[in-house]
Design a protein that fits this description.
The structure is a homotetramer. By secondary structure, chain A is mostly helical. The first copy, chain A, contains twelve helices and five strands. Strand 1 of chain B pairs parallel with strand 5 of chain C.
């Protein structure tokens, strides 16, 4: 016997996480509320729903990235199987670009767990000490383009404050940021990836869920990339152009 | 030189489809509005935004399906790479379960294109004739469980009417439904897949985009499946249970 | 109760397609023989084994292609999950580049089925007539680079002849080639994709298996691409270079 | 300017890793030799070629596994895009089932690097000490079914010896095995995964390449699974049967 709280359906009803899909969710809840239901087994309050949506919207799209280029190149070979292009665009959602998100949530969660009685400043100091000792890189800081400020960080914190969903995770992250800048003696960007991880923590998500949430957001973003390629046709697609460019500019060295 | 309308970023701004991500989208638009922007290059009106969200929410989650089982089985082998589990869960989004969606949009679009001056009833008759001639199966009708009525169909039409976004696609689909029932002499379900395809048509999406939209919705739904597995751990996961069941119940025939 | 002829294992033995893996296969059979076992439920004769290997080797690697670039771009984001990079590189194995392979096998199989008593020349004529009527493109002919001769075609036919595995499929394909050139009045390349599909037919494979065989061959080829990227590191990888190139050469048009 | 040693093609030749595909590889090399070329930039000697083939053949197929079930479930939804089914079957090739392979190669490589002058027994002791200290699990030992002996281990060592390709990696692994059994005071299986990783080391492959090699072998194995499903049709497929079983045996708990 298997069990799940995800969903079931009968002749005249579909039930998802304990809610009647047609009467309680469709038309009332937002698509991203499903994630709240799935990971936390309750519908979000309106402020939580808006914040999760704001966070996911902010990471869904980044223009031409290795990920969206992989999706487009896949589409070029299999335009009849667009689900494969979407999937290909998600597969690179690994440690390099997205690792910082879940690592930030984890860093904060571990900090709270290790110092249950301490102030945020004390935990921040302990975190900075720990990373200094191990030599590991603190997740969530620095950005190749957005320096010294990542505009998403500012906006997300502003909204979290405004909507009353800024909590201990976001505040601890701010304290870590301050501690890091103090030690460095110069500004460093608290980046969007780190803020995403921190504020998801305030919404109650465990670090293990962070990567799947950003992966889902990216899937939404990829729709536009594939639509753009489809509107141009294979011959005039970015993928074809890119392939031709590589063909014409490759030095073959046995 | 490549070109895209998807997005770009500079030191202090991220621009997506012509909108400043932080100031014009985050906190104002919903995640699914990105799809509207991507496929139609404009933000949806509120009613369109709500309808797209309602449609995607209705197809995001179906409990234990071949797709969500594939995601869970993939997670079992690679719990550290959850993007791969999400991707695996999307790869089966092919002709069998989801084909009817895009085919319905296409059937309706082709009907309008072939009979630009005809009434909806005339187009419906022509469509039914055409499928009868070729022997091909009309997409969008019949359901193994939801008989004679798919509850999503009812709900979506109700909302589309209420929000003023029911248009020619949805109406033509109703006419085709009536025509099919007349010819069969008994009720047949206008299913959720067909209705999804029809109402996306009314929101202005071309049939080529339909599959990527449902694929993105599914990615959101898969977050909960992977979270459920993760909360149980590999040993007690549904995937492990399923694997054990197959191990114990397989007859090997060389 | 499930059943399979694929394989099973006990405490001291692993059985695959009726053969003891350790004593009858490892050290005796080649990796690609598994495909023969899987699709035809018997081990190939030596000539068949060599031919299948020669065919797969010939389609495993094509240098920088949309597929291998997608694999490399995926690796760039998730170098810790190389299975995802391999998978991404396979997902574009769709209609555009590989469709011709299975379509050629199918074209030939359909020809034999429709004209069981006819000579190869008569079937070839019937096939050419049929495609002319429907206006569909004959699969297996033409090549953007290898004109008028695809070197793989020549080599594969030579080996098939030499090893005694050239049969009715390969011969009918030659007859179709002759018929097409006669109608066009000028040479056209019988390409590697078509020949691959034809000669797989002579080895007894149904057209439905053709795509998975080439997909498996590609997986083998992708190992070298990922190894090359890994040997350079993310910073100096082709994927990173490609991404930078796109970043620097994109015109954003809202 | 990009550069690669993988391959290139001109009007009348295809060159792969410095070898003319048609004249030097097809008909002479085996498919798996490509992997040697790709990772080590030279063709293997005959003994190396045979050993790599024997290793890959031994890990290509394991009957019904989470991976092959994911491939079959994906095929059920998208039988027209079999490349997606193959890819889905590869995506679970992560830490749980395959991690031990690359970790074994790495453990041995790290052992040699840390103790360049030591005897195999001394290195084995140092390795066992190190894992005992950190409490981490030694990779390559133990098996749920094959106890106390994994038949593949025996066979592969036998062949490696016979073909003259047993080297320092394989011998160190044997020494580690002896050391571990001595410390435990009872037998433990040196499993196939560990042996695979060890003997690949003797063939000159770095640990970073190990996972892609087994992934490619699995792709070959999946051809048979998909062929079996296709031969039964969607309705009678294992995937459909499995899905029905889950449908009928799920307890939904909101």
């Amino acid at each position: 016997m298997y069990s799940t709280h995800v969903g079931t359906s009968s002749t005249d009803a579909i039930t998802i996480y304990g809610h009647d899909l047609c009467n309680e969710l469709i038309g009332k809840a937002s698509l991203t509320d499903l994630i709240f239901l799935g990971a936390q087994n309750r519908l979000p309050q309106e402020s939580e729903s808006k914040m999760l949506n704001a966070l996911m919207l902010g990471v869904a799209e980044h223009g031409f990235t290795p990920s969206s280029l992989a999706a487009r190149l896949t589409w070029l070979g299999a335009p009849e199987a667009t689900q494969a292009a979407v999937a290909a665009g998600l597969l690179g959602a690994g440690s390099v670009y997205l690792g910082a998100m879940e690592l930030t949530t984890k860093m904060l969660a571990d900090g709270f767990a290790a110092h249950p009685e301490a102030s945020l400043e004390e935990i921040a100091t302990a975190i900075a000490d720990k990373y200094e000792e191990t030599g590991e890189r603190l997740p969530g800081f620095g950005h190749p383009v957005h320096r010294p400020v990542d505009p998403r960080t500012v906006r997300w914190y502003e909204l979290a404050e405004q909507w009353g969903v800024l909590g201990q995770y976001g505040r601890l992250l701010t304290a870590v940021h301050a501690e890091v800048e103090k030690r460095r003696g110069k500004p460093i960007t608290l980046n969007g990836a780190g803020t995403f991880g921190g504020l998801l923590g305030d919404l109650g998500f465990g670090w293990q869920t962070v990567r799947t949430i950003v992966t889902a957001a990216r899937a939404v973003g990829l729709v536009g990339h594939i639509a753009e390629e489809a509107s141009r046709g294979t011959r005039d697609s970015t993928a074809q152009q890119l392939y031709m460019h590589v063909q014409d500019n490759t030095d073959y060295q046995a």
